[in-house]
């Protein structure tokens, strides 16, 4: 599937500690597969990312969230979180300048003397900065600080339904994209077959005329060319087409409502080379050769050379390079836990910072 083929820009999801921990604990307690973040990843249209501070917060706060789910074994929540969810939610490291974006400066203000509606939270600055870096993006969070400053439209009791709206929208876009490619493939196969038949008929006109006449005779004798059979076939084709058009219309209406329900952080100002590269790579979610990345950006209306991309991505911590013939450029890293070599004083496991 090619997620960038859909005519509307793909929305990237940016989430935080509480949302990830909550979904992991919920899935573990109910012994079911987590279906929000894994579902977004499966669609290929709305990949989800986190800021660099989130893995450390998960280590410190997962147990606190698990306490709110009576009967939940913390080890089950850890397994769902680190084995099932986090491999699908990469960490994107940001440069210092990314935290200085003008639209998120209010998030930094944490003066307790300020009214609540004007009070920010520096702990959430990384999430807001990442949303700006990868815009257009949707923040998936229960934290009201993002809503207070116009970066989201969800709070504690609405964030999950809105996140599922993003999942529905992404699923529709992915399905429509796959259908378009299937139709294109079918059209190409038909065109190739028709071209081969026409070519053979031109080379052997008498044989083609004879075969065509034989097929027509067999169809007539079998009754396929009778008026009532043709009328019935036409009615059936019309019925199937009408049903398909109605279903497509209903799905389109549902998609429009789902997308309109989301507060999208749109790109702001003239994008930097780093932002252009990051936004494309975050959506295709695979490393690309520099020349391919430059070609994709040019097709989107941004003239950036491979040399400019090499220079920009080599200086920014969000990117990594692999190989040299040609070099592949990717974005993000997977946060993983690994047991430490020492045992904690209580005899339990001791975890180290994800890498």
Please characterize this protein's 3D structure.
With 355 residues, the protein is α/β, with parallel strands linked by helices. It has a domain at 188-260. Helix content is 53%, strand content 7%. The chain is built from 12 helices and 7 strands. A 4-stranded parallel beta sheet has the order 3-2-1-4. Strands 5-7-6 form a 3-stranded antiparallel beta sheet. A hairpin with a 5-residue loop joins strand 6 (319-322) and strand 7 (328-331). Helix 1 (17-30) packs across helix 3 (54-67) and helix 7 (159-203) packs antiparallel against helix 9. The radius of gyration is 27 Å and the shape is extended. Residues 178-185 and 340-355 have low confidence and may be disordered.
List the helices and strands and how they pair.
Elements: E1 12-15, H1 17-30, H2 37-43, E2 48-51, H3 54-67, H4 74-85, E3 91-92, H5 125-133, E4 137-140, H6 144-148, H7 159-203, H8 205-221, H9 227-260, H10 273-284, E5 288-289, H11 290-299, H12 306-315, E6 319-322, E7 328-331
Parallel strand pairs: 1-2, 1-4, 2-3
Antiparallel strand pairs: 5-7, 6-7
């Amino acid at each position: 599937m090619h997620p960038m083929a859909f005519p509307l820009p793909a929305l990237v999801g940016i989430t935080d500690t509480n949302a990830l921990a909550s979904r992991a604990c919920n899935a573990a307690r109910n012994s079911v597969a987590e279906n929000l973040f894994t579902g977004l990843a499966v669609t290929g249209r709305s990949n989800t990312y986190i800021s660099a501070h989130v893995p450390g917060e998960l280590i410190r706060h997962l147990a606190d969230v698990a306490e709110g789910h009576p009967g939940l074994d913390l080890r089950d929540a850890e397994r769902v979180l680190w084995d099932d969810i986090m491999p699908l939610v990469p960490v994107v490291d940001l440069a210092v300048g990314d935290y200085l974006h003008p639209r998120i400066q209010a998030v930094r203000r944490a003066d307790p003397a300020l009214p609540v509606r004007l009070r920010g939270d520096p702990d959430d600055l990384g999430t807001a900065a990442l949303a700006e870096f990868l815009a257009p993006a949707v923040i998936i969070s229960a934290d009201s600080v993002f809503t207070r400053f116009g970066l989201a439209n969800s709070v504690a009791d609405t964030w999950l339904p809105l996140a599922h709206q993003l999942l529905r929208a992404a699923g529709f876009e992915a399905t429509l994209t796959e259908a378009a490619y299937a139709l294109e493939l079918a059209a190409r196969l038909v065109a190739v077959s028709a071209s081969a038949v026409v070519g053979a008929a031109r080379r052997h006109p008498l044989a083609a005329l004879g075969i065509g006449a034989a097929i027509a005779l067999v169809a007539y004798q079998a009754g396929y060319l009778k008026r009532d059979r043709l009328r019935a076939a036409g009615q059936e084709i019309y019925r199937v087409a009408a049903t398909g058009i109605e279903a497509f219309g209903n799905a389109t209406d549902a998609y429009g409502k789902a997308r309109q329900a989301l507060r999208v952080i749109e790109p702001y100002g003239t994008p930097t080379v780093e932002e252009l590269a990051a936004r494309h790579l975050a959506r295709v979610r695979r490393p690309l050769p520099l020349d391919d990345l430059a070609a994709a950006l040019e097709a989107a209306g941004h003239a950036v050379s491979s040399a400019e991309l090499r220079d920009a991505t080599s200086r920014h911590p969000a990117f990594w390079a692999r190989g040299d013939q040609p070099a592949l450029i990717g974005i993000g890293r997977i946060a993983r836990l690994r047991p430490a070599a020492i045992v904690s004083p209580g005899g339990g496991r001791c975890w180290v910072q994800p890498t």
